[in-house]
Amino acid sequence: MKFTLQDLDNMLLVLVRVSAIIMVAPFFSQRTVPRRVKLILSFFLSLIVMNLVDYTAVSYDGVLGYSILVVKEGITGILIGLGSSLCLYILGFSGHMIDMEIGFAMAMEMDPTTQIQTTITSTFFTAIFMLMFLVSDMHYFVIDALYDSYKLIPIGGAQIKPSLYQIFVKYITDYFVIGFRIILPVFACILILNVVLGILAKVAPQMNMFVIGMQAKVFAGLFLLFILMSLFPGVVDFLFEEMQLLTKYFTQSMAGFLAVFP
Fold first, then answer.
1. Which of 127, 203, 234, 257 is 20 to 30 A off residue 70, Cα-Cα?
2. Domain ranges of the chain
3. 34-64 pLDDT, tens digit each
């Protein structure tokens, strides 16, 4: 079997989409994963996928046409990978809001995986999420989504439709709804604690409620986090379902199957 120049062009188109997904998808996109590992993984996945892709619909005219195909494949891979990675931001938002309530927001730290300033609880939630992501074999879901995308979206067949805007609106809605549902127990308990401290400040004004309140919030917050850890697997499982749903909607929208968001 001969390897022609056309085969090389097709392989490069496959490599662009696969690399874009790997560079954006959760776990694979983390800075702790070396770039060489990402490139090698993308290359070998491309070798596997290129033998399963239908190239009959691939057509371009000259270098400009091929460049347009490369850009479309890159955008397609980024959007598919983005659909599976957006749920990580929900946990980051929840952890940041919890730290603001219990007083840990003053202790910001650099997250080595994203290279941004974040809070302790946010980093902790993200680390636990990634561990469960690997243990539950969700990284295989990313690879399956990569392969299934070629069944729905042929090379150069991606369509940017208004339904993508509707998907982003749904994500923003779920971002706040799910995030506040996660932090609701902590928020409610800290609110009750603030009410109790306010009553005590009126009853016993000689007591320094500012100092007592800071310590009480820290202890109450740590106790609540200890209790919430038993419920965290259910939260992660719900986020996994949300991740699969968003990835499915992004892929269907670019394939032209999701004209109106359900």
1. 257
2. 5-255
3. 888 888 888 888 888 887 777 777 777 777 8
| Structure confidence at residue 87 as a pLDDT band (50, 70, 90) | confident
DSSP the chain: ----HHHHHHHHHHHHHHHHHHHHSTTTT-TTS-HHHHHHHHHHHHHHHHTT---TT----HHHHHHHHHHHHHHHHHHHHHHHHTHHHHHHHHHHHHHHHHTGGGS-EEETTTTEEE-HHHHHHHHHHHHHHHHTTHHHHHHHHHHHHHHHS-TT-----THHHHHHHHHHHHHHHHHHHHHHHHHHHHHHHHHHHHHHHHH-TTS-HHHHHHHHHHHHHHHHHHHHTTTHHHHHHHHHHHHHHHHHHHHHHHHT--SS--
Joined tokens for residue 156: 């150069």
